[in-house]
Specification:
mainly alpha; two-stranded parallel ribbon; 1 helix; about 20% helix
Length: about 80
C-alpha cells in the first residue's frame, strides 16, 4: 500500500488507517510524506491560511481506496497525486 496525503488532516486520518492495516491485516505500507507542504500556510494568496487545518478527531480515518472530493461542481474534475 502506498499512502500519500496532500494535507495535514488527511495525513493524520491516513496514517491511522495505515497503522491499522499493518497491525490487523499484516499489510505492507509505505507512507509517503509530502514534506514540501509542511511549511505551507497559504493556498491562494498571502495570509489566506488555505492550507491550515484542524487536527481531526482521533476516530476519523480514511479507508483504503477512499478518495477526497472537494466542492460540488459538475463542470470539471481535477485528479492529483502527492503534493497537491
Amino acid at each position: 500500500i502506498l499512502a500519500c496525503p496532500s494535507n495535514g488532516a488527511d495525513a493524520a486520518r491516513m496514517l491511522r488507517e495505515c497503522v491499522r492495516l499493518a497491525r490487523e491485516e499484516q499489510r505492507v505500507v509505505v507512507f509517503l510524506e509530502p514534506i514540501a507542504l509542511y511549511p505551507m500556510r497559504d493556498l491562494h494568496g498571502e495570509k489566506d491560511g488555505g492550507w491550515m487545518c484542524r487536527y481531526p478527531d482521533r476516530s476519523e480515518t480514511i479507508a483504503l481506496g477512499e478518495v477526497g472530493v472537494h466542492g460540488g461542481g459538475e463542470d470539471i474534475a481535477i485528479v492529483t497525486f502527492g503534493n497537491g
